[in-house]
Amino acid sequence: MPSPGDLYTAPASKVDYELVRAFVLNAEQASLFSESPTFEVKEKRDKGNVAEAVAALSNTDGGVILVGVKDKDATGEDRIVGVPKSEHDALAGNLHALVPEAMPEIIPVAMPDGQRLVLVLRVDADAVPHPVMVSGKVLIRISGHSVPADRRRVLDLAARDQATPGTEQARMSVERRPWQPKDIALWPKDDSGKEARLRSGVLRIAGGLELPRRVLDRPWLGLAARQAALDSLNNSPLRSSPDWHLTTWDTVEARATDLRFLAKEVPQGIYRVQAGSYLHLADRRLSMLVGFRWADGAGFGDAIALEHLHHAMLGAMITIASTCAHVARAAGVAEPSDPLPGEGWLQPDNGLAVADVVSFGGLRPADGDEPRTSHFPSARAAGTSTDDLDSLARDWLTYWLLDMGRLARVDFEQWIAGWTRPDFLRMPVLA
User: Fold this and answer.
1) Which of 20, 125, 172, 396 is the most exposed, having the fewest neighbouring CB atoms within 10 Å of its CB?
2) CB atoms inside a 10 Å sphere around CB 44
3) What pTM was estimated for this model as a whole?
4) DSSP-derived 3-state class of residue 209
5) Going by C-beta distance under 8 Å and a sequence separation of 6 or more, which residues neighbour residue 411?
């Protein structure tokens, strides 16, 4: 089931009445009708009221406007009153006339009676020239209100479009560290020499969120964000597999823009595993790396089965999506945000080959050359649901096997597509 926040990012084809209803109920519970900087409702169009809302959001962080929803004098689902079907074209014409350079995406959503619509307007503040004016005014959005911009804000808006990604103007100039997830250290330094004797493999998955522009005013991960990360990690499906067990996650390092966490092995299950994660905030990007390491502890086999590698991969992807979203909510910068592309690496330790740490079953290489590392190329999932992430995980594995020349008499593409996803691989429910 989609979460209410999906209204900001879901493909238009997936925006339906149930999603709008869930969003409205959640917004009411969270007091967003009076406090949100990215959400506004209009019961109906009245002259330029919708155009003014579009302009204000365009000059701030963007967001969502629902036309056909009451701001007051109703509660719960009774807020959703809809507008006549003819209003879709009328509103589009009104916006073309008043804010032609800032046309939002307009999604008509049929109400259950089939006679009226809720119009979902999604405003992308990064896709319009600034400042956006309406009726000679420059408006900006603050919590629950649209207000005229002062002179300094108008000048900032004029300069906004000249900035390249990563150089946006902010109140605080923070040192930018390079993001190199393939090489980030996730595990404590071993001085005993034990790790040098292990037959182990590491799976690294990276992803994250592009956050709204207002994060530039508070470019740090505060106490609420740190606790949100720990809460999400400790509800991660990586800790729930019947084939391995992890301790609770502990904070290893906590700095203004960097958080590092570790979950140690528990000597139960088929595999001995560790997990590490690293969160990094740079400008508007909240990036996250999750590492999953398995080894041959206590006499267990060192090669992970291909299907279990899929479980670890998807578990890491869910962990990234959940943790970044939960951290962004705790920091007050959750919407609107866009998922960053994901990327992955498989890295056998201590000079081993990929075939030493992954069991391929009946799949055999086309030649005798065994790769020492593997790369899962940068890609975007279709959405943030578990189904969307799982689809990308299976695509990655299919591409990887094809790229390595793993062939067999069986149709392994169909085999991978037919794997049953275990119940533990689901998005955690967090308060």
Assistant:
1) 172
2) 16
3) 0.81
4) strand
5) none
